[in-house]
Specification:
The complex is a heterodimer.
Chain A: H1 2-16, H2 26-31, H3 35-57, H4 59-62, H5 73-85, H6 88-98, H7 108-129, H8 138-142, H9 149-176, H10 179-187, H11 189-209, H12 227-253, H13 263-295, H14 304-330, H15 333-357, H16 371-392
Chain B: H1 5-12, H2 15-29, E1 39-44, H3 53-62, E2 92-96, E3 106-110, H4 119-123, E4 129-131, E5 137-139, H5 149-153, E6 160-161, E7 171-172, H6 178-183, H7 189-193, E8 199-203, H8 204-217, E9 237-240, H9 261-295, H10 297-300
Parallel strand pairs in B: 1-9
Antiparallel strand pairs in B: 1-8, 2-3, 4-5, 6-7
Helix pairs in contact in B: 1-2, 2-9
Classes of the chains: A mainly alpha, B alpha+beta.
Bound molecules: iron/sulfur cluster (2 copies).
Chain lengths: 408, 313
């Protein structure tokens, strides 16, 4: 009987054409004219011709990359930051499904959705950056270069994208009313979570590992044999921080979805995350100190790059760590939120430092991104936000579907 | 590049399995290299007069575009700026100094060093680079995806990329005129044209011996250092010079360790993580699950994993 109902809902959903733009009734159209939509449309209008320029005229016409600095904003931000900031998916899935902290369950789906979209758009960003994007599957199926750290990254990201899609499937099937399919997808949860954590550990660290082979090019304050560990620890910190930032934003933007959320309960979760954030950031900070001691970099501290390094270390790691700790102790939800924003900025700063700012810091001609590189990056982020909104407005992401048992 | 069975199995397995295999392959490629039979080049920087005929000959032999008239290369104004190899000039000559009036300038030819254990080859995720049996490090455009990681990896910053090509961007670097060597057609273009014989072509072991003889014979003329003997694990392009190599713009920080070793530790950790991590995670899962079963026995049946697929319907 339930099955029957399920099928009915499917066909109803399909008939309603929920995935299509709604019929063009005038009033309806007018409701699309919101500030967000106007800005997004403007961005896409600039992004589209730049995209054409990139693929018709090549990388030289759209980027300021040089032979000395072969990686720029698209690798530094779209790929490195994208992957780190999408770490919330595996962190929350592990928290709830493996470590059994069930009260965090309401935060899992948004985190997984962000993770999935994050990785999806990392791949899109990569397509812009690769010289021959149409050869993207070559490392997997045609000509594997197994001695490369990049090879490990490629495989893990490809698999993890799939894993995250499967992890999100229960929400899709709930939306479509496919009960039986949903049950299968739910049944896979534990296995997928374990596999997802494994893949994340491998590629988050391998992204740092990419730079191990460039000791002479990365500034010694950032180069370290521990780069893989540092990248992994900071990715966990970024994941936690992003979950906090996101819950804060979602609860503003998608108010109608979270009406029946218990505010008190939410705040408790945020404080709990803040505590975890403090611990992870402290561990990360200590690792950075150890890496620093290992490289004997004292004499470098009193150089411009030294000051810049201290800004990152103190202002964007130690400071949010302290904020988290104080906030968790005193129960200050707003301070946790501030700390999480600073953490996110700090991880972005770190990735940009490693890949751009401190990379070939001695190059005769420093790399500064072309305006078109910024446009593409902004376009990709905007498209991600649009898709996030589209999905959240349709599928049970921020709220449970009352017809189903929540997934633990 | 054809796909052999082993590689095929590797890619068909999980990423885990294949990246696990990475470590062992890395080892194979860094087996102690005899390297004595490798073709190599020795550039004597005390002889080079900066005529840039080698640049012309290289472009003539390998360049994508016509090199133009050879006389145009005499123009000394190009020396005003330091140049690097790019997708058109696979080798470039720079002038260093003079710092004092009574000093002569040194001209430095640079190109791919044809490392004994090349960083570029270990970094490429499609295996586009190969250390050929003859010695040169060669690159195969037909598999390159244009990620430019090899450019990040190369300690000498030699590979260049044709950013301006929208459809066929590729890496460009010196091949030591590999095709010519493979056919046994004599020395590479630059060595053949050099009017002062600053570039000697030969077997690596012979060239090392020659370099040592030269330094021993004229210790005033040369600094006692053969660049490339040990740098980055050794290279097939060797240099001797009259001034310390750091002063001539050679990278001072490459060390003597072969570059592929820098990532070996990480890659060999992969199989361990693959085995240990899931075990730990499943342990954590079992633990938290048991605790829960104990505390709320009724609840346990409803947890996801207890639910058979389809049983909800
Ligand atoms: S010099 Fe650079 S490009 Fe040439 S073999 Fe060595 S690592 Fe490869
Ligand atoms: S640019 Fe080409 S040759 Fe270089 S690492 Fe990437 S795929 Fe390999």
């Amino acid at each position: 009987m339930m099955n029957h109902a399920g099928h009915m809902t499917t066909s109803a959903t399909l008939l309603r054409g929920d995935w299509l733009p709604r019929p063009s009734v005038r009033g309806h159209l007018r409701s699309y004219v919101t500030p967000f939509n106007v800005v997004a449309a403007a961005i896409l209008c600039i992004g589209a011709p730049v995209t054409v320029n990139r693929f018709v005229n090549g990388l030289a016409a759209t980027t300021n990359l040089t032979d000395d600095v072969p990686w720029g904003l698209w690798i530094g931000f779209d790929v490195l930051c994208g992957v780190a900031l999408a770490a919330g998916g595996f962190v929350m899935a592990a928290t709830v499904h493996l470590f059994g902290l069930r009260e965090y369950q309401p935060l899992v789906r948004p985190a997984i959705l962000t993770g999935f979209l994050g990785y999806f758009f990392v791949v899109i960003g990569l397509m812009y950056d690769l010289g021959r994007p149409w050869r993207l599957p070559f490392p997997m199926v045609y000509s594997p270069g197994v001695t490369s750290v990049m090879f490990e990254v490629a495989w893990c990201v490809a698999l993890y994208l799939t894993v995250q899609f499967l992890e999100f499937c229960p929400a899709i099937f709930e939306w479509l009313g496919l009960r039986r399919w949903r049950a299968w997808a739910v049944w896979l949860t534990t296995g997928l979570t374990v596999f997802g954590v494994l893949l994340s550990t491998l590629h988050q660290s391998a992204l740092g590992g990419l730079f191990l082979i460039a000791p002479g090019k990365l500034h010694p304050l950032w180069y370290s044999p521990y780069l893989p560990l540092l990248f992994f620890a900071s990715a966990v910190a970024a994941g936690i921080a992003m979950v906090i930032v996101e819950s804060m934003l979602s609860h503003r933007v998608f108010r109608s979805h979270v009406e029946h959320h218990d505010e008190r309960q939410m705040n408790r979760l945020v404080l709990g995350l803040g505590r975890a954030g403090a611990i992870v950031l402290m561990a990360y900070f200590c690792m950075k100190c150890l890496a620093f001691a290992h490289e004997h970099g004292w004499h470098l501290l009193r150089t411009p790059y030294g000051y810049w390094w201290l800004v990152e270390m103190l202002g964007f790691i130690l400071c949010p760590c302290m904020m988290y700790a104080i906030a968790a102790r005193r129960g200050l939800v707003w301070l946790v939120r501030v700390a999480s924003v600073v953490t996110v900025l700090g991880i972005v700063l770190n990735r940009l430092n490693v890949s751009i700012i401190a990379y070939r810091w001695d190059a005769a001609r420093r790399y500064v991104p072309d305006w078109q590189e910024f446009v593409i990056t902004i376009t990709i982020v905007t498209t991600g936000l649009i898709m996030f909104r589209w999905i959240v407005n349709r599928m049970p992401v921020l709220h449970d579907d009352p017809r189903y048992e929540p997934v633990h | 590049m054809s796909l052999n069975r082993r590689q095929f199995l590797k890619c068909m397995g999980l990423a885990g399995v294949s990246t696990g295999a990475a470590a062992s392959t890395a080892e194979a490629s860094t087996a102690p290299h005899a390297g004595n039979d490798w073709h190599a080049m020795l550039t004597d920087l005390t002889l080079c007069v900066g005529c840039r005929k080698c640049e012309w000959a290289c472009r003539k032999a390998n360049g994508p575009t016509d090199p133009g008239p050879i006389d145009a290369y005499d123009d000394p104004s190009v020396f005003e700026q330091r140049r690097r190899t790019n997708s058109i000039s696979l080798t470039v000559v720079n002038r260093v100094g003079p710092t004092r009036d009574d000093e002569k300038p040194t001209f430095v030819k640079s190109q791919c060093m044809h490392c004994c254990e090349p960083a570029c080859a270990s970094a490429c995720l499609v295996g586009a680079y190969r250390k050929s049996k003859l010695g040169p490090v060669i690159y195969d455009e037909s598999v390159c995806i244009g990620c430019r990681y090899c450019m990040v990896a190369c300690p000498f910053d030699m590979p260049a990329f044709s950013y301006n090509s929208p459809t066929r961007p590729a890496i460009h670097k010196c091949t030591m005129c590999f095709e010519r060597l493979a056919k046994g057609d004599g020395a590479p273009a630059c060595a053949s044209i050099c009017p002062v014989e600053a570039i000697t072509f030969g077997k690596r072991s012979e060239l090392l011996a020659l370099a040592r003889r030269k330094i021993a014979a004229e210790p005033k003329r040369y600094v006692n250092h053969i660049f490339g003997e040990y740098e980055a694990g050794g290279t097939c392009w060797l240099y001797i010079a009259g001034r310390p190599f750091e002063e001539l713009g050679f990278p001072a920080n490459v060390g003597t360790r072969p570059y592929p070793e820098l990532t070996k530790g990480l890659l060999s950790a992969v199989p361990f993580i693959q085995v240990i991590w899931p075990a730990v995670l499943m342990g954590a899962y079992a633990f938290s699950h048991r605790r829960e079963t104990a505390t709320s026995a009724n609840d346990a049946r409803d947890t996801t994993e207890g639910t058979e697929p389809g049983s909800e319907s």
